[in-house]
Design a protein that fits this description.
single chain, about 500 residues, conserved putative lor/sdh protein from methanococcus maripaludis s2 fold, OB fold (Dihydrolipoamide Acetyltransferase, E2P), six-stranded antiparallel β-barrel, 8 helices
């Protein structure tokens, strides 16, 4: 390569290289300036665009897309005003109004027991249930009869003696009168000079003896009368002794005071019993009543304006494994005191139609209160926490209507409010429903008021240890619960799951 040495050894080469470098620097500088200017322009354009967009956003009215209003479907029922009878629910125990403790009135050995003298035996009034050995009583009766016979004979003798004493007194009186007449005649004869003094003295002595005989006869009559009085007294005492002996003999026969059923029987034939020892209990199953406790507020509904307890009708219900026993009755009285560690009032109702119910049954009691006029029955779910119900207006929108709650009846309520009669009320309101909401109402029948079934007796719950112990302690210590009902309740509370009705009834009676 012959030209290379010449090029490399060109004397103008440094100047040319400097020119090239300056041109290259100038080109790079121009390019950088161009890019810088372009970047600044783009940034300025972007900033201007953002500012204009913000201004437009701030100045322009936002466009809201149109939405279709949501319509809810609600169940409504027509509010019908009328007269409704509230029913108060309580829990109580069936008792017998006639209960007799069978006790031995005489001490001795039981020599006879009736076949039906046993637990659950049915007896009639006057039936002989048991017989205590009557040997001693029969001996005492025979002795009293003998003494009575003697007393009667003595009384007859005394009366005959009294009659004789009376006749003797009468004869003595006649004789005394004759002697007195003879004496006066002798005195008259002596005065006329015909008689003698000796005759007068003899007649006077005879008259005095006759008067003495009258006095003796009177004494005999008094003794006869005293003898009659003593005989009558002895006869009366003999009759009393005979009556007592007959009563003692009758006491050896243990009889049923009325027709009923036996319970708590604890005797055997041949047993030695003492006086007043309890042999059993006789219960009249046809004379029943129910004792139940209500709160003070509930009690206020069962009295009239004068504070007297009204004779309200009641229905006692006992449910067992799907079988329900009912009994009708009427309130009869109330307890005189509240009771220690108790609240509310204890009320008694006499049952006049109580088939198959037994004393000791734990029942649900429904009491009819005084009728409420101008009231409306609605489902309980229709009432809100603010004391209003939702009604559907003519333009199919909801409106809140204030009402006054009168009573709660299970899953229903009795209310009263202005503008309520005839309105369409939402049967079951939810938190999503409120005034002004557009709805599509579905009418319910008036018979479909109870939106939820009542709690049945088969519904049970599991108690905590503390709650179970508290209920069992109340059952063991309550004097209002009979021994039979106490045993049944304790066995129920010892189960793993306890019926709800039993728990609610006990807690209501405890005042909780």
């Amino acid at each position: 390569m012959p030209g290379l040495p010449t090029l490399f050894h060109d004397p103008d080469l440094p100047g040319k290289m400097g020119s090239i470098r300056r041109m290259r620097f100038l080109r790079h500088s121009l390019t950088g300036l161009f890019l810088l200017a372009l970047t600044l322009g783009i940034l300025g354009f972007a900033a201007q665009t953002v500012i204009e967009a913000v201004r437009a956003r701030m100045n322009d009215t936002p466009a809201i897309p149109e939405r279709q209003e949501r319509v809810f479907t609600v169940s409504v029922i027509e509010a019908r005003e009328g007269t409704h009878t509230p029913v108060l629910t309580a829990y109580g125990e069936v008792l017998s109004r006639r209960t007799l403790e069978i006790r031995a009135k005489a001490a001795g050995t039981l020599v006879m027991l009736a076949e039906n003298f046993e637990e659950g035996g049915t007896v009639r009034e006057g039936d002989i249930l048991a017989l205590v050995d009557p040997a001693d009583a029969e001996f005492a009766l025979s002795r009293a009869q003998t003494e009575l016979t003697d007393s009667q004979a003595e009384e007859r003798d005394a009366r005959r003696a009294l009659e004789l004493a009376g006749e003797e007194l009468a004869a003595a009186g006649e004789q005394a009168a004759l002697r007195e007449t003879a004496y006066r005649r002798q005195v008259d004869l002596e005065a006329r000079g015909v008689g003698t003094a000796a005759a007068v003295e003899t007649a006077g002595l005879a008259a005095a003896q006759a008067r003495q005989a009258v006095i003796a006869a009177r004494q005999g009559l008094a003794l006869a009368e005293a003898r009659v009085s003593l005989a009558e007294t002895r006869l009366a005492r003999s009759k009393i002794a005979l009556d007592e002996a007959e009563r003692r003999l009758e006491d050896t026969r243990i009889k049923a005071g009325f027709s009923g059923t036996l319970s708590d029987v604890s005797v055997v034939e041949g047993r030695l019993v003492s006086v007043n020892e309890k042999l059993g209990t006789l219960v009249d199953g046809t004379a029943l009543e129910v004792a139940f406790r209500v709160s003070a507020a509930q009690y206020a509904r069962l009295v009239d304006e004068t504070g007297v307890l009204i004779r309200a009708p009641v229905v006692a219900r006992l449910s067992m494994h799907g079988l329900e026993l009912t009994a009708k009755g009427v309130i009869s009285r109330e307890a005189a005191t509240v009771g220690e560690d108790r609240t509310g009032r204890l009320v008694f109702a006499r049952l006049y139609e109580a088939p198959a119910l037994k004393p000791g049954d734990f029942v649900t009691v429904e009491i009819e209160e005084s009728p409420l006029e101008r009231s409306v029955r609605l489902p309980a779910a229709a009432l809100g926490a603010d004391g209003t119900v939702l009604v559907v207006s003519d333009d199919e929108r909801l409106a809140a209507l204030p009402v006054t709650l009168l009573r709660r009846q299970g899953n229903d309520i009795l209310v009263r409010g202005d503008g309520l009669p005839g309105a369409r009320v939402v049967a079951e309101r939810t938190p999503l429903q409120g005034a002004g909401l557009k709805v599509r109402p579905i009418a319910l029948q008036p018979d479909a008021l109870r939106s939820k079934p009542d709690i049945g007796t088969d519904t049970t719950l599991q108690l905590s240890d503390e709650r179970r112990a508290r209920l069992m302690s109340f059952v063991r210590t309550s004097p209002e619960i009979s021994a039979m009902a106490r045993q049944r309740l304790l066995s129920t509370l010892e189960q793993e799951r306890v019926p709800v009705r039993v728990v609610e009834g006990l807690e209501q009676r405890m005042g909780g």
